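Collaborator request, handled under Task 6.
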Amino acid sequence: MEGTVKWFDGKKGYGFIVAGDGQEYFVHFTAVPKGLRLRENDKVSFDAVDTERGKQAQNVQLLEKGSAPERSSTGNQEESEEETY
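Structure tokens returned to the collaborator:
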């Protein structure tokens, strides 16, 4: 399945992907290859899994880097805050 990263918090280690069908899938850092940083609007492929806790993305692979919105210099999130897994 393919989708777009809605958001991913590197410090918390999770986020959400919106699939082509409009459904949202939870993504945990353990479903992302080590060294890959997910960012807003990245295009990804993944395996969709229905769990007791809802829809989840597994085996996430980057297809295309998205154009994340510009962040102001006064924003709280900086590159150094991002974790790489």
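The cover message to the collaborator said: "Confidence is low (pLDDT under 50) at residues 72-82. Residues 2-69 form a domain with the OB fold (Dihydrolipoamide Acetyltransferase, E2P) fold (CATH 2.40.50.140). Please let us know whether this matches your experimental observations."
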